[in-house]
Amino acid sequence: MEPVSTGAYVIVSAILFTIGVLGVLIRRNAILMFMSVELMLNAANLALVAFAREYAQVEGHVLTFFVMTIAAAEVAVGLALIVAIFQSRETINVDELSDLKQ
User: Fold this and answer.
1) Closest to 43 measured CA to CA, from 4, 15, 8, 6
2) Helix (H, G, I), strand (E, B) or coil at 100
3) In angstroms, how far is CA 70 from the centroid of its own chain?
4) What are phi and psi of 100, to 5 degrees?
5) How far apart are CA 16 and CA 82, in angstroms?
């Protein structure tokens, strides 16, 4: 069995990143937008690991670890903000949250 090429990983990563970008641009739900951002971060991680494997470098794996850590912190803070906004406004639709009026 032949190993999967780096190009295949990069193509999958590009597809996942494109889906994430479309999710951020099209969706108006804050939770779905955060999920799309997470998808984009995971696509970047996949590309980093694929290139690190291709060139036998550890730095790509280490950078992926840091990106995953930052993504976890972003999720924790983002979900806390979404819960606080939902409690005060009763909605998480970004179009309705764009105005600063109470």
Assistant:
1) 15
2) coil
3) 11
4) -95, 5
5) 24
The amino acid present at 1, given as its one-letter code, is M
Written as six digits, the tokens of 40 are 């984009």
The CATH number of the domain covering residues in 6-90 = 1.10.287.3510
d(CA 70, CA 19): 21
Tell me the pTM: 0.81
| Cα 61–Cα 10–Cα 60 angle in degrees, nearest 5 | 15
Q: Render each residue's pLDDT in the chain as its tens digit; 102 residues.
A: 778 899 999 999 999 999 999 999 998 888 888 889 999 999 999 999 999 988 888 888 899 999 999 888 988 898 888 888 788 777 777 767 666 555
